[in-house]
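Raw record, unedited: RIB43A-like with coiled-coils protein 2
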Amino acid sequence: MLEFQQRATPEDLKIVASIERKRQIEEARKLRIFNPRVRKIGIDKEFLDKQVEEKKQQREWERTKECQLDEALIRSNEHAVHLERRQEEERRRINKEVESYRQVHQRAEDRRDYDLYDPEALKKSLPARVDDNGDDPSLGAASAQKFEGEDRNLAERLKAQREQMRWWIQRQKEEREAAEKARRDAEDAYQEVVLSRDKRAMTLTRMEEECRRRLNEATATFNRALAEEQQHRRHCEAVQDEEDKKAEIYNHVTGDFLTEAREQAESTRGPCKPLADRYKGMTADELKVFRDAQLQQMEEIHKIKLEEKRINEDWDHLMDSHLQTAYSYECELNQRKSELNKKIAEENLRLAEQQKQHQEYLNRIVYKTQPTAAFYEQFNKGTR
């Protein structure tokens, strides 16, 4: 019998690898699903512990790196401070050398223009002139060192100036006195003019007051005459008014309104339409006709009430009959309802008995066999 060696093809290897991968995934899934801790908590504790450890290592590495950076920064700062200190010392040394060189080789006294800003120049210089008579050889034609008033005759010149000032003051005093006298004369003249004007004004005032007094007297006389005339006119008007009132009272007393004349209420529209503002009431005949009409209306109203009473009684009888009919119908309905309830109760008892018999049949025959442990063990074997 020939034996053939079986060789796996690449497709078979792929299928086997796929099956093996699925089997491994299924086993890992079983471990997760059938592990109560993982299933209830819902997390992978090992993976979380691994993450915690990695985070600790990361923090430790970061802390170490920060320490290294801090140390490097401190070293850099120290080096920078050292370099800055050296630069400052070098700058100070250079400035000191420059200052010493200036003090030795660049003094102010050695400059060409030192005489322009020499602080001792005034002490070293000569005066502008020595003599005012022109014997000073340092003064030339255009030296401009001698001016008017700058001479040796200062005392005589000051005395002459004082005399001239005194004469000017005396002259000003005389002019001021003359001006004051002229002012006083002008004031006196003005006072005289004012006094004359005041006298004239007083005279005119007295004349005006006299005219006003006479005018007031004339006005008072005219007012008295006018008042007497008005009083006489009012008296005449009062007398006339009194006579008019008496005439009006007489006319009212003797007029148709108070005498109640029936003719005054007659109207042009007919005898049955008198004037309302002049109507004084009905006569005895008119009152009798009116009362007869009222009695007739009362009889008609009584008849109407009797008819309404009869109709209401008929309606009451009809309502009573309807109520009796409704009561009898309600009694019949209640009787039918009680019979129906009785039938329903009997039907419920019959159905309960049938259900009880059916339950006994299920318990004795259908559900007689109880499931064993093997029945429950066949479940929960896979993850699907």
